[in-house]
Amino acid sequence: MERVRPRYHYLGYKTLVGAQMRYAVHDRNGWPLAMLGFSTAAWKLAPRDKFIGWSPEMREKNLPLVVDNPRFLILPWIEIPNLGSHILAIVRRRLPGDWTERYGTTPVMIETFVETPRYTGAVYRASGWINVGTTQGRGRYDRDKLYDKPRKDVWLRPLRRDWRRTLNR
User: Fold this and answer.
1) Are the beta carbons of 40 and 67 closer than 8 angstroms?
2) This prediction's pTM
């Protein structure tokens, strides 16, 4: 993914954690439209883990089958109806093969976080994602239970019909 100035995404530019995949979306003339980043999933995420039905042992075993989508940016001057859900649909079909080629593991589910009320998650809903709950506001590195981050809605997108069986075996 080519680097786009941090000012366009409210979280700025940060290095993704662990395994990662980045996509830049361009129009037919080569102009950039959007950027997406994918990385390793959050270690513990109560709404996700409950939705999947994971025990701590199952989570530890199968977490590599879940990929996080920590960045999705449509450049602010782009105004194309339904572009976000269209991009998410294309990436949903492409990501498993790309991830498998790079890391040798085929993801079964994608997770993402939507900071409310800043955003509604409508683009994820329109693309078939499921809102499974809200975070506690601790963040990835909060080991001291400070709860100093914004609470975010947790959205999941299964990539296969047999996702539940695969994630629980």
Assistant:
1) yes
2) 0.84
